[in-house]
Write a structure and sequence with these properties.
The protein is of the alpha+beta class. Helix content is about 25%, strand content about 25%. The chain has two domains: about 290 residues, Rossmann fold (3-Layer(aba) Sandwich), CATH 3.40.50; about 120 residues, no CATH class. The chain has a seven-stranded antiparallel sheet with strand order 2-1-6-7-8-9-10, with helices on one face. A six-stranded mixed sheet has the order 11-15-16-5-17-18, with helices on both faces. It is globular.
């Protein structure tokens, strides 16, 4: 389970910010939310099942997901893909001279095998500056290893790690190398990270391919079908069939290198998804069924829901973590609400899966749906740096109108829109004239 994630000097994050899934010591107006939206991780730790992150366009809320994805990718790949001379693909905060010579900071706190672990690192483009791993076996936090550049102090609790500390390149993570050499704790952390899935709600490609993989391999097939049918899309059934892959039938959203490899390797069998709809006569009697092609005949919203179905069901079935940027894009507000409700429920989320999503949908911004600690805001200051904070930090009544107060700007994280009343009819020589940045 995810407990906390911190990032600093990365993209729009100048100072270190921390996003937390720890349930605050507050009570919701509706006590059912306290029971359904949280879970007891251990004797001392209560966590949230879901969290929403709001913010204006370009506020940096999407960068939180990108930071998680960067950290995950570097851990999984730095030991096997990078070479000694290759740069680490980090993008530090670019709008300040203060951050130019500073490393970027990443730290994640998580629950694995019933124990709290804290892992992090600092990197620049050339090297790993520092790296650390701690865990809590009983009450106190214990060091597993600490690193300052190429000096690695591997403790006995990190069994076997000291044997390989000299095998670590300057631009590779010790945790990644340890996992490659079969150090058990490191391997388990990498497995845990693979269960943390970060996706974009604007790009259905990867999610859709996973859903098709599940259907093709009979993995959660019934649950995926049931979810799609129950969301009132007018679909009575799905039809899965094999097709011959050619230049014309290979999905257009696949990267060119993958399309080329499919044709080159002769892997020419694929899957086609058909949606079954009932056909009626003039008297309202069903006379037959019609099959539509998912990609050609269904709406973009239906295609997105189909793509999301596999990751959603898999996350709930296995108690995993799903981070979705722009969850509400192309979805009706009631469907967005229903998806979140799957996680905020002891019945449909018995394994305490976690959903973290970035959104603009204020219809769900309500004390009837969320506790205050489940609502987060991302806001940029005048220097272009993103700040992250929770609604639990505000002293407001439990029955306050979260949506109305947010729209009115009480919590910040809304766009500051200039006067557009004279936009039309403005003299042509003034249209598009830049303002004085320093003026």
């Amino acid at each position: 389970m995810l407990i906390e994630f911190s990032v600093g000097n990365y993209r729009s994050f100048k100072e270190t910010v921390t996003f937390s899934m720890v349930a605050a010591k507050i009570s919701a107006k509706d006590k059912k939310l306290d029971e359904q939206n949280t879970f007891q991780a251990d004797d001392r730790l209560k966590l949230l099942k879901s969290a929403a992150i709001y913010g204006a366009n370009a506020s940096g809320k999407s960068n939180l997901g990108k930071a998680l994805l960067f950290m995950k990718s570097l851990i999984l790949n730095s030991s096997k893909e990078g070479q000694a001379t290759e740069e680490i693909p980090i993008e530090s905060f670019r709008l300040s001279t203060e951050t130019e010579s500073k490393p970027s900071f990443f730290e994640i706190v998580f629950l694995m095998d019933g124990k709290v672990h804290r892992y992090g690192f600092e990197v620049n483009k050339k090297e790993v500056i520092s790296e650390w791993l701690f865990y809590v076996p009983t009450i106190r936090e214990v060091t597993l290893f600490q690193r300052e550049k190429n000096i690695i102090d591997s403790k006995p609790a990190f069994k076997g790690g000291s044997k390989f500390k000299n095998n670590v390149r300057d631009n590779a993570l010790f945790l990644s190398v340890a996992a490659q050499f079969n150090i058990e704790i490191a391997k388990q952390i990498l497995i845990w990270l693979k269960n943390l899935n970060v996706v974009s709600g604007l790009d259905d490609g990867a999610m859709g391919r996973y859903t098709i993989h599940c259907l093709n391999n009979n993995k959660n097939r019934d649950q995926i079908f049931e979810l799609i049918k129950k969301l009132d899309l007018g679909i009575d059934e799905l039809e899965i069939s094999e097709i011959e892959l050619t230049e014309e039938t290979i999905p257009k959203d696949l990267p060119k290198e993958i399309r080329d490899r499919i044709l080159r390797d002769g892997n020419t069998s694929g899957i086609s998804i058909g949606t079954i709809h009932r056909k009626y006569n003039a008297e309202g009697q069903q006379i037959s069924i019609e099959t539509f092609e998912m990609d050609e005949h269904e709406s973009e919203g239906t295609q997105k829901l189909f793509a999301m179905a596999g990751p959603l069901v898999d996350t709930l079935e296995n108690g995993r973590i799903l981070v979705i940027d722009e969850l509400d894009a192309r979805l009706h507000p009631l469907i967005t609400r229903e998806i979140i409700s799957l996680f905020n429920s002891n019945q449909t989320n018995p394994h305490n899966a976690q959903l973290i999503f970035m959104t603009h949908d204020t219809n769900i911004l309500s004390h009837k749906f969320f506790r205050r600690d489940q609502i987060w805001f991302a806001e940029k200051d005048k220097f272009g740096a993103t700040h992250l904070y929770s609604l639990a930090e505000y002293k407001i009544r439990n029955d306050a109108s979260f949506e109305s107060d947010y729209i009115q700007g009480r919590y910040g994280a809304v766009p500051f829109i200039g006067d557009l009343s004279h936009l039309i009819g403005k003299p042509s020589h003034l249209i598009g004239k830049p303002s004085q940045i320093n003026g």
